[in-house]
Amino acid sequence: MKVYLKIHRRNDIDTVACCDEDLLNRVITEGILRIEINSSFYGGDLLSIDQALEILKEASYFNIVGENITNKAIALQLLPKDGVRKINSIPMAMKMRF
Hints:
The structure is a single chain. The protein is α+β, with helices and mostly antiparallel strands. The chain is 19% helix and 47% strand. The strands form 2 sheets. It has a 6-stranded mixed sheet with strand order 5-1-2-6-8-7. Strands 3-4 form a two-stranded antiparallel ribbon. A hairpin with a 2-residue loop joins strand 7 (85-87) and strand 8. The mean pLDDT is 95.
């Protein structure tokens, strides 16, 4: 399994954006909810899911979208299962550590 991962740096804070490979450049909607999984935010490097997880383990902030990456993040206790929101059956989650 592969995922796209991009690191955004602003004011000495890194935010990691990561999505399952098949979701890049898709728009997911459900009612008034909408998420654009665009290449400008998510489309960084195409990595193995294990490589991405190593980066996410160290991240203070991340935004992940997709069944594969969210399930693996839950399995590694990077976030709780109840921290995942689904939009049109596509799971997504954000982590912010203060």
